[in-house]
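Practice problem 4.
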C-alpha cells in the first residue's frame, strides 16, 4: 500500500467515525432506496414447455438446482464460465424486438423475475455462494447499517431486469415502465412508513438513468413531496464508448474463460445496451476506426448495420435517439459521485480482421467503464436551470465498480448521505 492510499484509508476511518456521530445523532433518518446498475442484481429464470434448447447441453434439466416451482439462478451463475453452458446462458438471456408490438420480449419459453424487491438482499452479491467473487453493494450496505439504516425499515433495494430499458414517448416499454411504477410505489410506501419523510434515492450506473426518467415522468408536486435528494454514483448520462465494443465484438466484462463472441448476440439484443450507446450530442470524436470508415456517435445506425446487427437500427432510431437527445432536469437536489483518472476505452481501432476480432483500444479519462464526458454531462446540461442544483464528488483513481467497495469511496458516499440527513449540504458544485 503506498503512502497516498494509506492516508486515504486513515481518512476513511476518521470519516466513518464522524458519520456515525452525525447520523446516529439524527434519530430520524430519511428512508434510502438503492437502485443498482446493469447486471447489479440477481436474476432468476424458469423454463416452460415452449423453450427450445439451442444444444444438447441446454435442456430444461440444466441447471439441476431449481426450487420447487422450477426457478433457478440465471445471473450470476458459475456455469457461464464453461463454453457449452455459456451458450445456454446467452440464449436464455437474449431479448427479441417485436416490430409489430414495438417492444422487447424474452426468448420463447423463458420466464424471468427479480427476487426480494424492496430489500437490499439481491444487491449485496450477484451470487451469495461466491461472496468474494461477486460482491456488489455489500460494503456500501454494511456501512449504511453502521450509521443506523435498517433493511426493510429505512433502507430498501429496487432490483430490476436490467436487460430491459425504456423508450421515448409514444413507444411502449412494458418491462421498464413497470419497473418505474414499482419504484414509484416503493418510494411512496417507504415515505409513508417513515413518518411521510421524503426519500433519498441512491443509484449506481444504469440505475441513474432509470431514476432520472422516473423523476422526469412525474409531476413537480410528486417529486417535491416524496424525493429529498438523488445521489447518482457513476451515472453514464451520455452512454459509454465501451458499449461500442460490446456491440461490435462482444464484451466478457472481466469474466474469465468466456469467448466474447459467444455472448455477443445476447449483448446486442439487450434493450438497455442500446440505451447506453454514446449520445451523439456529447461524443463528437471518432469512436470506431476501421480500414473502410470511421464511426462517430452520429453514425451509430450505420455502425449497427455494418457490424451485422441491422435489426438494431429501427429500435435505436425510433426508441432510443429521442430519449437521449437531452437530459431532463430532475428538479430535486442531485449529487454525482464519480471516479476519474482511470484509463477508459475512448476509441476502438479495427484492422483487416473485422469485428470478430478484439480491437486495439485507445484510452482516455473516466472511471474505466464510463468516459469522463458522460459522467460530467449534467454539469453543463443543467448549468442554466435555476430549479436544478447539482454537486460533484470526484474520486481520483477509483473505478466504476470500486466506487461501491473502496473504503474511502464508500466513506465519501455514506458521509454524503449523512450530510443530506442532517441538512448540512455543501456547495452546489464541488470539485474534490
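Answer key:
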Amino acid at each position: 500500500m503506498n503512502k497516498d492510499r494509506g492516508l486515504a484509508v486513515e481518512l476513511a476511518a476518521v470519516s466513518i467515525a464522524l458519520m456515525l456521530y452525525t447520523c446516529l445523532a439524527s434519530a430520524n433518518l430519511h428512508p434510502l432506496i438503492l437502485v443498482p446498475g446493469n447486471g447489479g442484481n440477481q436474476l432468476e429464470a424458469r423454463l416452460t414447455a415452449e423453450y427450445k434448447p439451442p444444444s444438447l447441453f441446454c435442456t430444461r434439466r440444466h441447471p439441476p438446482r431449481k426450487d420447487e416451482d422450477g426457478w433457478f439462478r440465471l445471473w450470476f451463475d458459475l456455469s457461464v464460465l464453461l463454453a457449452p453452458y455459456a451458450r445456454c446462458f446467452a440464449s436464455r438471456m437474449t431479448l427479441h424486438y417485436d416490430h409489430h408490438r414495438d417492444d422487447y420480449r424474452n426468448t420463447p419459453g423463458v420466464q424471468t423475475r427479480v427476487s426480494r424487491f424492496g430489500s437490499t438482499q439481491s444487491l449485496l452479491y450477484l451470487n451469495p455462494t461466491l461472496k468474494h467473487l461477486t460482491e456488489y453493494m455489500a460494503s456500501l450496505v454494511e456501512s449504511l447499517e453502521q450509521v443506523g439504516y435498517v433493511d426493510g425499515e429505512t433502507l430498501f433495494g429496487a432490483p430490476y431486469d436490467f436487460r430491459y430499458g425504456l423508450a421515448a414517448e409514444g413507444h411502449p416499454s412494458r418491462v421498464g415502465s413497470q419497473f418505474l411504477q414499482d419504484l414509484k410505489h416503493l418510494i411512496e410506501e417507504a415515505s409513508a412508513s417513515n413518518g411521510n419523510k421524503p426519500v433519498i434515492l441512491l443509484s449506481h450506473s444504469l440505475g441513474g438513468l432509470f431514476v432520472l426518467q422516473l423523476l422526469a415522468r412525474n409531476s413537480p408536486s410528486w417529486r417535491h413531496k416524496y424525493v429529498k435528494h438523488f445521489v447518482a454514483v457513476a451515472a453514464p448520462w451520455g452512454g459509454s464508448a465501451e458499449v461500442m465494443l460490446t456491440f461490435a465484438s462482444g464484451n466478457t466484462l472481466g469474466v474469465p474463460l468466456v469467448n466474447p463472441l459467444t455472448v455477443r448476440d445476447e449483448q446486442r439484443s439487450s434493450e438497455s445496451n442500446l440505451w447506453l450507446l454514446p449520445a451523439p450530442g456529447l461524443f463528437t470524436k471518432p469512436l470506431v476506426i476501421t480500414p473502410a470508415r470511421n464511426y462517430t456517435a452520429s453514425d451509430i445506425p450505420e455502425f449497427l448495420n455494418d457490424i451485422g446487427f441491422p435489426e438494431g437500427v429501427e429500435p435505436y432510431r425510433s426508441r432510443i435517439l429521442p430519449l437521449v437527445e437531452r437530459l431532463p432536469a430532475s428538479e430535486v437536489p442531485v449529487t454525482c459521485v464519480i471516479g476519474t483518472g482511470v484509463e477508459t476505452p475512448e476509441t476502438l481501432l479495427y484492422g483487416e480482421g473485422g469485428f470478430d476480432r478484439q480491437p486495439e483500444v485507445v484510452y482516455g479519462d473516466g472511471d474505466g467503464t464510463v468516459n469522463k464526458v458522460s459522467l460530467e454531462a449534467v454539469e453543463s446540461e443543467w448549468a442554466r436551470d435555476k430549479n436544478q442544483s447539482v454537486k460533484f464528488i470526484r474520486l481520483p483513481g477509483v473505478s466504476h465498480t470500486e466506487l461501491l467497495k473502496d473504503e474511502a469511496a464508500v466513506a465519501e458516499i455514506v458521509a454524503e448521505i449523512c450530510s443530506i440527513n442532517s441538512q448540512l449540504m455543501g456547495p452546489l458544485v464541488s470539485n474534490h
